[in-house]
Write a structure and sequence with these properties.
By secondary structure, the chain is mainly alpha-helical. Helices cover about 80% and strands about 0% of the residues.
Length: about 190
């Protein structure tokens, strides 16, 4: 959205109600993908994604048009996303866990269902690997390689200099490579 960021800011500043659906359409996939890597459950990621846009809309309603026109949308939106994911994970850890019993495969499952299940397993495997990283590395990697933010934007979201963010991404990628190598050897 970097190329259209300025135009989107102008649209939002000019007519928030009319421009906000376009903003959501442009950003919801990125927000969901980021939330999905930070949260273990798909439904939780969907819930957080919705909450991100509710909070964004509420905040933007209170912004003066000049402030909105200068707002760096992606870092701002992912600051909200990361904070909500952290809050959600904290509150989820305080709730009692429910265990679902799996009694066997659904005989009516189709190949498409199987493909979705395989994709879900892959997402879960990567989330587990990412969870093994230090939080600063995990957050930097998700924002860079899942969401696609620039190092400067990530620095804004995380409150760290871009050089530190680059280092966190590099070290985190190195740890992920080591994990994959160990998995292949076992």
């Amino acid at each position: 959205m970097t190329g259209g960021d300025r135009a989107m800011r102008r649209k939002l500043a000019h007519d928030l109600d009319r421009a906000f659906p376009d903003f959501v359409a442009a950003m919801q996939g990125m927000v969901f993908n980021g939330a999905r890597r930070w949260l273990p459950d798909r439904q939780d990621a969907e819930d957080v994604t919705q909450e991100v846009f509710i909070r964004a809309y509420q905040a933007l309603q209170s912004f003066a048009p000049e402030r909105m026109a200068e707002l760096r949308l992606r870092p701002w939106l992912f600051t909200i996303t990361l904070n909500l994911c952290r809050n959600h994970a904290r509150s989820r850890n305080r709730r009692p866990r429910q265990v679902a019993l799996v009694t066997g495969a659904d005989p009516a499952a189709t190949d498409a269902t199987d493909a979705v299940a395989v994709d879900a397993v892959a997402v879960d495997e990567w989330r587990i690997r990412l969870d093994r990283l230090a939080a600063r590395q995990r957050d930097a990697i998700v924002l860079r390689h899942v969401v696609g933010l620039s190092y400067n934007e990530i620095g804004e979201v995380l409150g760290r200099p871009p050089g530190t963010v680059k280092s966190d991404v590099h070290r985190g990628i190195g740890r992920l490579r080591s994990m994959l190598t160990m998995e292949e050897l076992s």
